[in-house]
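We modelled the chain as a single entity of 311 amino acids. Its sequence is:
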Amino acid sequence: MRGKRRAPRPPLPWRSPWTPVVCVAGVVAASALVAVSFLVKEVVLVVDGERRPVHAFAGTVEEVLAAAGVTMAYGDVVRPSAQEEVRDGATIEVRRARPLTLTLDGHTSKHLVTASNVGEALAELDITPAAGRLSAPPGDAVPLEGMELTVYTRRKVYVVAGTTRLTSRTTARTVRQVLRQKRVELRRGYHVDPPLDSFPEDGTVITIVPPRTTQIDPATARLDWRALAECESHGDPRAYNPDGPYYGMYQFSLPMWQAVGGMGLPSNWPEDEQTYRAQLLYQKVGGRWRGQWPNCGDRLFGRATVTALRR
């Protein structure tokens, strides 16, 4: 057995002529994997509030959006900007534009907003309808196809009737609604400026003017109305007598005041209006003044006449 030849050893793989090539290829592949891992960036993409992770080979925000299949339209907003370089772990937010037809206090305009709900849309347009009235709640979504929104803000409006001045903080759409809210009852023929169906802007002064459709007879106008007023109330248009009660320069009772077309209280109207209504009353009763002014009515006729009437 000593002279028997041993079988040759099998060749070792690392001694193959291809071994260096294989080793180099492995190193290159491993290096490539490491390099790729550094090139892939993990980004959080938020589109209209919906978040999703994105892995992308991208250098800019625009490239990330393209890789994620997100296209930008007119009016859309992206943060950071499209050309900004993306860092690993960054968050990219896209807000899509929505058409909004806004009617604000009667004035209609068209806008593009990126807000997802009504409250955010109003804030985006710098509109703060504090305690105002909206056609949709602030939390309602603004759909991508757009919506119509009506807003009435709370405005300060004034109502002037004679010497009465009322202040109203209102969201009313018309002058008529303002008067109803203030419980102002208009009598037939009264003129209102601006018109009842007009929109009351902030600062609007609503003036109520009573009608003067009945002419005063010249003989009635020549009577001494100043003397009558002096006797009844010392000429005070704001006078008040609780015994009746009676109001104003000529001490009207409310039924008599209303009978000649007066509105509200006589003492809330200026002197010329009270005098006009007193003259109407005189004509309405055919000159029989004692029913309205039993103690002072004779002053209408001057001193000489008063003396004669009292004899």
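As a brief sanity check on the tokenised model: The mean pLDDT is 85. DSSP finds nine helices and 14 strands in the chain.
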